[in-house]
Amino acid sequence: MPIYRFRIYFEEDESVYRDVAIRHDQTFQDLHLQILKSFEFDTKHRATFHRSNDNWQQGREISLERYEDRAYRVEPLLMAETRIVSEIRNPNQKFLYTYDFTRNWPFLVELISISNEANPKLTYPATVRKEGIGPSQYGTKSILGDRFIDVEEKYDLGAASEGFGEEGEEAASDAETEDGTDIPADDEA
Length: 189
What we know:
With 189 residues, the protein is α+β, with helices and mostly antiparallel strands. The chain contains four helices and eight strands; from the N terminus they run ββαββββββααα. Helix content is 14%, strand content 30%.
């Protein structure tokens, strides 16, 4: 049973990529879901593949579904109905993959190898290699991940705890009472 290995590059930074292994008889929907999983994206948005050539030009579309608000020159194939093997035209086949049409996450998908032996330890499709820190779907991502947010919130000191009011002035409790009368300094009391 042939196993295809695709390299999925984040288009804006080709040093960030994931390698996904998938059986020849699995569908583009299986590949779509594995790409999202490998880049830690959710599955809430629209997506499409386009068969491509060596110059990364768009060819036949393979869409998650038929979208009524999009104009098609040719009806797209559907991911759930289209097997991977049916769209492989050469040993270096390329696809363009776009996720979330609002944010427009672009990925380059390239067939990098074909093997005739499945790894019995893997459940296909599977992410078999990760390089680089992937983009964060909804915000910033760091090496610390979500733990960084906890550290930042824990040590976020407000203006009152620093002893200053607005614009670096002393807090009102240090200089005057609420009615505006001055508080005598320690040496005046």
